[in-house]
Amino acid sequence: MNEQELRAAMRATMATATAPPPMSETPVLDAARRDERRRKARWAGVGSAVAAAAVVALAVVVVATTSGAGGTSHVGAGSPTSSATGTSSQDPSGSSSNTEPDWPDGQTDATATAGPHYDTGVALLESMATVVPAGFEAPRGLEFADGGAGPLDMSQAAWDGKSGGVDVWDYYGTLPLTKGARMGELIVDVKTPGNEATGTGCDLGNLWGWEGTCVARTVGGEPVGLWTGTEAQPGRGASFRHDDGTVVWVFQSPEYFGSGRQALSDLPYSDQQLLELATDEKFHLG
What we know:
7 strands, 2 domains, alpha+beta
């Protein structure tokens, strides 16, 4: 089951549920965005059939719970999951019913926990820490205020399947940016050549399908998309494809959901700085 099929199954489940009375959407949206952030950082292996089935089951439980409690469930744009498609293995009987991908480098799911690709994910986060703008800080090792596991500064390397026999990797980093007691977030997502993204600039789409509008810009004669979020999904970002097919998304948010901090009163990066970050060779990962 791929991401599109998963979303279709969730929408179908929602469509068959009895619509409950309306309620305030704010806490539901906040919770969904917190879950989305953590799911991206810690659940890249959801592309496997078992994990996808678990998500569908969770969607059914959520619908049943919200219907019974008199609440309205709001489903927004989700984060991308690993497409992780490899050669299917067979059990000793010769059956081909086992469709678990052949994970690379001895991995048991899409996420690398050691080795060169894991190290590349860590290096991405360290590179992000070198581009913190003047007047802002990037504290390390802070925990989620609402009990979420792990630090607010996170990195990940996830195998995203094969293309033409070559492994495709998705590297991700998120870094809290503070000014005084307030906190926002910098996110960088890099997909290596062979990825499923199409087009250049604005045609690449916004990071993880988040809502927003895009205007075409250029840096060094190359097309870059400059994104503006919505009131529900605030922030600004940039999308860029290198000549070798590597795709880079950079996104800054005035908020860091789950941090327990107030949102930044101003965004850390100017539009030009975002565009330059998206095209910066330090984020051109192979």
